[in-house]
Every structure is written in structure tokens, then in C-alpha cells.
Amino acid sequence: MPFKNIWTEEDFNQMGWHDSRIYKLRVGKSVEMDIDYILEWNEPEIVGMAFTFWIVPATLVFDQITDFSCESVFYMGDIEIENIEKQVREEDVQWIIKCHSGEFSFIAPGYSMFIRQKPFFSFEQTISLCARGGCSLERTTNQDNPYRLGEEYTTLQKKEWEHYSEAKRRHFNLSEIENLERLHENKAIDLKKYLIRKRALNKEIAFSDSFLKGSIWDRTSYL
Questions:
Q1: So what's the pLDDT on residue 222?
Q2: Alpha-carbon distances of 79 from 41, 76, 126, 155, 180, rounded to whole Å
Q3: Cα 86 → chain centroid
Q4: Domain spans of the chain?
Q5: 206 pLDDT higher than 70
Q6: Cα distances (angstroms) measured from residue 24 to each of 5, 61, 114, 145
Q7: Which residue has the higher pLDDT, 223 or 89?
Q8: Does the model's pTM come out above 0.70?
Q9: Which long-range contacts (CB under 8 A, 24 or more apart) does 8-13 make?
């Protein structure tokens, strides 16, 4: 997707809001949302690992709204957009914001989405609240974010890349164990070589699991 500072309804067919998190929502004469907009879903570097993302803090604004309605219950702080639908009618345009926990709709002539900061590369589909500079409904394309340039954020980024490198190493080791098991089942490897190599791989995997404990690659959360 090309990068632009301001997106409008003219770009609707190029855009997608799936899994964009809403941090703040204000409804009045306008509907204003502070969201994490996923600019790009990056294919995994290694088959079998997760996608990575380019994400931006953005302010999505629909002005001159009428006929606002809301269905279901929303829990602020954990709202993610499933999709935004546009229904062109004879005299107006209805917008339906479908979320994982409900939906709301309204009539508005169009929208503007302001990309407030440069894109973040992320291993997850959201940016931490600190990293994005908190919540904001500013209609700006030049939001100040000193935290992003600070030592704390730089250290966290370095740690994330260390975790990612270790997760890749574990992935290769797990794949090798699967291959070893197939060779063993087909009697295509010497038993002693099989046992020695499997023991070594399991030791490396145990180290990786320990190193990655508490990170987004922590397997203990789903093992």
C-alpha cells in the first residue's frame, strides 16, 4: 500500500481496517477515532512463523454525521475493527463500523484519516500505548513523540529483535526435530545419531523457551 499522510473516502477501495485497535472514540457532530492502522501485513520471513506489520497511529474522522446508532456492548480499551462498510444510498452514504464486539453506524458524506506519525515496524498488530505516545484525536500529520527517540524505547526494540532471532532459531530446531522423527520412523537414521541429535536439539529448544518466556514468542501460553 502506498504511504500517504491523509487518506479520504476517495481511497476507500485501497484501504482495510481489519484488526485496527480503537484507543479512543468521540461522538458528537463528528465521529472521531484514535486507531492503530495497519498499513502493511508482511509475509513471514520464514514459513510457519507469524506475520509482521507496518502500523501507524491515526485519527479517523467522519464529519457532519447524522443517524448515529450503536448495537451491542463495547469495552473501551479492547475494541478492534473487523471491517468498515460503505453503503451508498440515493441521497446519502451510510458507514457501518463493524467491530469484534459489536457495531455502530451513521450517515456522513465521507471521512479523513490523518497519519499522525511515521510507521512503526511491529511483531504484533498493535503498538504499545507508551510507544505511540498515548491516545490522541489530533488531526495532525506531525505528532510529537519524544518517547520514540528515547533510550527506553530503543532498548525495548533491541530486545524484541533479540527475541525474534531466538524465535527463528527455535523454529529451525523444531523443524529439524520433526524431520528427525520422520527419519527415525522410516528407519533412515542410525539410532545413536538420532538420540544424540534429538537430545542436543531439545536442549537448545529448552534454552530458547527459557529465553523467550514472557515475550510474544512464549510457547508456554499455548502449550
A1: 45
A2: 20, 6, 12, 29, 44
A3: 23
A4: 6-145, 153-217
A5: yes
A6: 20, 12, 15, 18
A7: 89
A8: yes
A9: 8/110, 8/111, 8/112, 8/113, 9/86, 9/93, 9/109, 9/110, 9/111, 12/86
